[in-house]
């Protein structure tokens, strides 16, 4: 076999996917096809089953999560059943509204499903299957409840209550500080390794493989956090040696194993929920700590574009929601520009 031939055999993963090895997604894709036989006289077009197979293959190669791909397949299947549309070319604005009106769910749920369908149609547009994004103007009005960010006082109270003389207490304290002072996501936290810490330059250096947007990101670290990271690494080495584990993760389980990085509900997240209930602390969870980081940057004078870059957002509108500014804060922040 030639070297060039072996390079193109990267599609082996897609073949496995077609055989149903990707957590049941392929079975759901197949269920999109109508149980009735499509007449041979049907006009030429792209049937939704073939469309979804291609899109799921593209998403698999791009590294999308299984859960995201399952949602894509599920909502397209719901759309097909509600509208009786079998071909991509038959999807229209009226069909989308018909689908939305068929749902006996809240507007928030409708909005979530609509965003997923729009994402699918967007990929179809990128593939050259649509000449325009006719779905762009379809929206669902939802009164969004802004989630609050963690406050510095609550974070400090929690840290003072944790016993840093125990491994779990130390690990959780360092995790809280890392989340609050870097704003990284909980999934990224579970994938951090010693190699990501540049102690000399005081920087957290993360490659795209552990970030949601798949882009390299560097964030500064303060002396206090760097010191605690060194202490944690030393303790991790002792635990791994005792249990015979070989890894270099920064945040590990009490037996030296890695955390569940594929779930937002990993050991650290569960610990934070437990602490919040035990000590009566509000907004102490991974996402609240991330929002608190964004708010701290704003208070220190960082502009919206910089905050968005630090959070790894691709949309400034999302960053704006993170900041949770009340009326007085808007006035105070604008005063400096007058």
Overview of this protein structure:
The protein has 338 residues and is mainly α. The chain has 16 helices and 3 strands. A 3-stranded antiparallel β-sheet has the order 1-2-3, with no helix packed on it. Strand 1 and strand 2 form a beta hairpin. The termini are far apart.
Topology, please?
Layout: H1 3-8, H2 12-18, H3 25-31, H4 48-62, H5 66-83, H6 93-101, H7 107-126, H8 152-161, H9 167-182, H10 186-191, E1 197-198, E2 203-206, E3 217-220, H11 223-243, H12 267-279, H13 286-299, H14 304-311, H15 316-323, H16 327-335
Antiparallel strand pairs: 1-2, 2-3
Helix pairs in contact: 2-4, 3-5, 4-5, 5-6, 5-7, 9-11, 9-13, 13-14, 14-15
The number of distinct β-strands equals: 3
> Helices and strands, in N-to-C order?
HHHHHHHHHHEEEHHHHHH
What level of helicity do the residues show? Answer: 55-70%
Report the C-alpha radius of gyration, rounded: 24 Å
Uncertain stretches: 3-23, 32-42
Mean pLDDT: 83
Helix segment count? 16
Structural classification: mainly alpha
CA(first)-CA(last) distance:
70 Å
**How would a crystallographer describe the biggest sheet?**
3 strands, antiparallel
Fraction of residues in β-strands: under 5%
Q: Globular, elongated, flat, extended or rod-shaped: what is the shape?
A: globular
For the largest beta sheet, what order do the strands appear in spatially?
Answer: 1-2-3
């Amino acid at each position: 076999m030639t070297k060039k031939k072996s390079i193109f055999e990267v599609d082996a993963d897609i073949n496995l996917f077609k055989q149903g090895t990707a957590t049941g997604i392929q079975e759901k894709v197949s269920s999109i096809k109508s149980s009735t036989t499509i007449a041979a006289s049907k006009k030429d077009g792209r049937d939704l089953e073939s469309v979804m197979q291609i899109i799921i293959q593209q998403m698999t190669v791009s590294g999308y999560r299984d859960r995201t791909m399952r949602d894509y397949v599920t909502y397209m299947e719901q759309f097909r059943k509600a509208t009786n549309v079998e071909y991509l070319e038959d999807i229209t604005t009226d069909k989308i509204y018909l689908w939305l009106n068929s749902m006996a769910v809240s507007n928030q749920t409708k909005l979530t499903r609509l965003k997923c369908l729009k994402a699918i149609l967007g990929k179809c547009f990128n593939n050259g299957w649509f000449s325009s994004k006719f779905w762009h103007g379809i929206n669902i009005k939802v009164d969004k409840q802004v989630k609050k960010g963690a406050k510095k006082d609550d974070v400090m109270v929690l840290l003072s209550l944790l016993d840093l003389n125990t491994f779990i207490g130390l690990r959780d304290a360092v995790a809280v500080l890392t989340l609050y002072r870097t704003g990284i996501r909980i999934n990224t936290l579970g994938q951090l390794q010693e190699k990501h810490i540049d102690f000399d330059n005081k920087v957290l250096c993360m490659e795209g493989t552990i970030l949601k947007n798949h882009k390299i990101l560097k964030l500064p670290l303060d002396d206090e956090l760097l010191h605690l990271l060194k202490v944690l690494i030393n303790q991790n080495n002792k635990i791994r040696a005792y249990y015979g584990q070989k890894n270099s993760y920064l945040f590990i389980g009490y037996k030296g194993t890695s955390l569940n990085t594929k779930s937002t509900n990993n050991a650290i997240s569960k610990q934070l929920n437990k602490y919040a209930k035990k000590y009566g602390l509000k907004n102490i969870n991974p996402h609240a700590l991330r929002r608190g980081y964004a708010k701290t940057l704003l208070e220190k004078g960082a502009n919206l574009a910089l905050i968005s870059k630090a959070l790894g957002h691709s949309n400034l509108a999302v960053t704006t929601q993170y900041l949770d500014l009340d009326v007085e804060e808007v006035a105070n922040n604008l005063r400096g520009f007058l």
